[in-house]
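Example record

One chain of 208 residues, shown exactly as stored in the release files.
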Amino acid sequence: MYAGTAKFPVRKGKNYLLRIVNAAVYNHLFFMVASHNLTVVAVDTSYTKPYITDILVLSSGQIADVLLTANQAKAKYYMAAKVYTTHSEANIDNTTTTAILSYVGSKSSTTPILPEYNDTATVTNFREASDVAILQAYHFHIDDVYTTDFPSNPPIEYNYNGDVDKTLWVPISGTRVKVNEYNATVQVVFEGTNIFQADKPSNAYSRL
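Predicted structure tokens for this chain:
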């Protein structure tokens, strides 16, 4: 039944980082994993604000890094991709390419229901979720893109030039901004994140 189909074994409860690449030359692709959500953490190798989706829409050559949690019942879940286009179905390859996410010890299988090849609404919803810039969110009052609690001073004092306590090795994830008055002078201190070798900070001044 599964001859020739790529299989990726996973264990229930584990998290996996997947890099999805659209290797098609001309086509956009829908991509889904049956019964699983995906958390997008990077697009084209650049980190992005994480967001959860059940479908990816990738343009030709585009790359998406996503986190997948194996949190479903033990089974074989199909990963599937198909073309998105606004052209007539007669002029495209409307087949579906698949691989299998196989929970260790599973027997049954589940297949995702992909959108129709010309489902522009799904593409639009995905783009809106993934492409909201910070300034766009600020001007149009879009929620859940950033927070305004960026600290004016380091919230925790430690030896910034080395010998960092292990409790500070893991950064806190977040997209935080600091709103400054027009024409204000701001000093920004850039500090390296090397925890094994001391780095000297760099200073920059800017007038807004």
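Notes: The two ends are 63 Å apart (CA to CA).
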